[in-house]
Design goal:
about 425 residues, EreA/ChaN-like  fold, 2 domains, nine-stranded mixed sheet, Hydrolase/PRTase-associated, Emycin_Estase, UCP036794_erythomycin
């Protein structure tokens, strides 16, 4: 069990404003990889606190990339806008291109505000110093196929034919966008065609930089195609576990980004707690599951890998009742008895920051497993018990930000109307 909270709680830091983030930045130190989590994909404060932390890391510690749990093609459009001071397209129009459900994850005013800040920050810097915004995820098979065909037809017609062949291989099964159906019924040589395309693109990528980061874009769209094949094959029951395929793809994408931009670059990663918190400190290990946080710690700890999780006691969240269903604001019940969130609420007043790294007392106090709430894009508050992940908190994260009361984030469909939304108004309004 935890050590007496009367002794341990004195080691917590208050977190009522951004000036209280100092202990976190000191603990991050010279880490090259900083992973910032979230306990849901629909909470305003998780986005804004991550934005504040990221701004400091960019301005004060020289971080040059934001990498997120989003699709590569959509995020690359945003990346180009952020890095191009001459592009005057309204940010809302750019973010409307995030049209795959759940659209609210990236098509929201919180991201609009942060993207606007990034664009302004980049405007005075030489191109090679500008901070980028990239998607790590694997879902965008059809979009990546379309982009590859159109781009290569202009830049590399011989390789474009390989993209056309790959597209034709999968196209008969695209109806209904049922990826599992694609891989249950498509021809066996589809994978070979995608792998051949990736090999050609990687060998020829040096020729593609007529457009901004064109070679990188071509290579990573090819990588999405290769790993999407494995991911949806796993979903259909014909391969390794789809969760592990997806998280390995996100790490492979990250490694490609780091290689492209150079060893001196440092990256901030935004993903759900279930991806960034070390899986070995949860029941995921028992089930044979790995995640991004674990893989990065295993491979790059010598370069500095820092994991910061988030949690909330109660409030509201943006989510849906079923996959593909309309989004809505849902109440987040007060955390269950015996959970980490309920314990912190009972012992503290307001938001707190807990820094486990290099603090033996805190590491020991939170070394036993307790339930830690995780809310997905599909959420049923009435079935709360299933939303808690048994977690050794001090082993899962290097730091934990507990936000006692939180509110749902603000999707683009909600227009600014004078109500106060801290730090979420779109750039330029």
């Amino acid at each position: 069990m935890l050590s007496p909270m009367s002794n341990i709680s004195s080691l917590f830091h208050p977190l009522s404003n951004v000036s209280h983030l100092g202990p976190l930045f000191e603990s991050i130190g010279s880490s090259k990889y900083v992973l910032l989590g979230e306990a849901s994909h629909g909470t305003h404060e998780f986005y804004t606190w991550r934005a504040h932390i990221s701004k400091h890391l960019i301005q004060e510690k020289g971080f040059t990339m934001i990498a997120v749990e989003g699709d590569w093609p959509d995020c690359f459009v945003l990346n180009k806008w952020i890095k191009n001071p001459d592009d005057k397209t309204p940010i809302a129009e750019i973010l409307m291109q995030f049209n795959r459900w759940p659209t609210w994850m990236w098509g929201n005013w919180e991201i609009a505000s942060f993207a606007g800040w990034l664009k302004e920050y980049n405007s005075s810097l030489p191109y090679e110093k500008r901070c980028g915004f990239y998607g790590l995820d694997v879902y965008s098979l059809w979009e990546s196929l379309d982009i590859m065909v159109n781009y290569l037809q202009k830049e590399d017609p011989p390789t474009a034919q390989l993209a056309v062949d790959a597209f034709r291989c999968f196209e008969p099964y695209k109806e209904g966008d049922s990826y599992a159906s694609v891989y249950a019924h498509s021809l066996p040589d589809c994978k070979k065609k995608v792998v051949k395309l990736l090999k050609e693109v990687r060998e020829n990528s040096w020729k593609y930089d007529h457009e901004m980061e064109g070679g990188l874009n071509a290579e990573l769209n090819s990588l999405v195609m290769k790993n999407a094949e494995k991911y949806y094959e796993a979903l259909a029951g014909f391969g390794d576990d789809s969760w592990n395929v997806r998280d390995r793809h996100m790490v492979e994408t990250l490694e490609t980004l780091m290689k492209y931009h150079g060893d001196d670059n440092r990256v901030v990663i935004w993903e759900h707690n279930t991806h960034i918190g070390d899986a070995r400190a949860t029941n995921m290990k028992r089930d044979g599951l790995i995640n991004v946080g674990q893989l990065l710690r295993e491979k790059y700890q010598k370069d500095g890998v820092y994991l910061a999780g988030f949690g909330t006691w109660t409030g509201t969240v943006r989510a849906a009742k079923n996959w593909g269903a309309p989004m809505q604001i849902m109440n987040v019940p007060e955390a269950m008895a015996g959970s980490i969130e309920e314990l912190l609420h009972s012992q503290c007043e307001g938001n707190i920051l807990i820094v486990f790294k290099d603090n033996h007392n805190l590491e020991e106090a939170f070394s036993n497993k307790m339930g830690h709430r995780a809310i997905g894009v599909v959420y049923h508050p009435s079935h709360e018990r299933g939303n808690y992940v048994p977690t050794r908190l001090s082993q899962r994260y290097d730091a934990f930000l507990f936000l006692e009361r939180t509110e749902a984030l603000h999707p683009l469909k909600i227009k600014p109307d004078g109500h106060k939304v801290p730090d979420t108004y779109p750039f330029g309004i």
